[in-house]
Amino acid sequence: MVTDIIADTLTRIKNSSERNHETVDLLTSKMVLAVLEILKQEGFIKEFSIEDGKAVAELAYDDKNPVIHKVEKVSTPGQRVYVSTKEILPVLNGRGISIISTSQGLMTGAMAKSKRLGGEYICNIW
Predict the structure, then answer these.
(1) Closest CA relative to residue 112, chosen from 91, 93, 84
(2) Does residue 63 sit in helix, strand or coil?
(3) Does the predicted TM-score (pTM) go above 0.90?
(4) 49 forms bridges with which residues in the sheet?
(5) Full residue range of the structural domain in which residue 61 is found
(6) Are 79 and 124 in contact (CB under 8 A)?
(7) Are strands 105-108 and 97-102 parallel, antiparallel or unpaired?
(8) 99 — alpha (psi -120 to 50), left (phi > 0) or beta?
(9) Domain boundary among 66, 83, 111
């Protein structure tokens, strides 16, 4: 049984990307689908779909090099990390993204900052 489905999702994506797999099978939840939608919008994955109750993500590559270089989980079930709008900073000078869970749903740190929303700091990806 997985206790942190987001950490499991991010780890599977990172490991599959490092091993140059084309797709990765993921457990499904509303939060996982929201994370996948953000990763698709930001170009970290090409596409995702739901097949047989599992999410399948097609990973993005740049000249056979993975687009995802590092995934850093910030908030965990044992230690939640919350940030205000002022505390949301760019990841690697804008080359990466942060994912924040706000009252209006999951969004990138830049989007949360522009909407002046704080929330739970889920992860950084670059």
Answers:
(1) 84
(2) coil
(3) yes
(4) 56
(5) 5-66
(6) no
(7) antiparallel
(8) beta
(9) 66
- 59 close to 45: Cβ distance less than 8 angstroms: yes
For residues 118 and 116, give the distance between their C-alpha atoms in angstroms, rounded to a whole number: 7
In which residue are the tokens 């739970």 written? 120
| pLDDT, tens digit, 9 for 90 and up, residues 55-93 | 999 999 999 899 999 999 999 999 999 999 999 999 998
Phi/psi of residue 89, nearest 5 degrees: -115, 155
Distance CA(106)–CA(104), nearest Å, equals 7
Q: Based on the structure, what is the number of domains in the chain?
A: 2
For the chain, how many residues are written? 126
